[in-house]
Design a protein that fits this description.
Blueprint lengths: L1 H13 L9 H23 L19 H7 L7
Helix pairs in contact: 1-2
Amino acid sequence: MTQIVGAFMAAGLLRLRGHNGVAGWRYLFLIGGIFTCLCGLLSFAMMPPGPTQTGAWFRPNGWFTERLVYPCFPCLHFS
């Protein structure tokens, strides 16, 4: 799916050759780079602080219950 969307995006952006005095491949790298940076920042903001602290405003209960966390991470001390 990503390859299909990327191919259509590349075909459209490469047709901008010479628009505003900038080559089409530069538009392709600019738009792709902006999208990649936004995805990276969003992923970093949504990453949990640790394997046992997965609760957040968009996932209030977290991924694991106390019963599931202890067998997976027995060396961690819970307070």
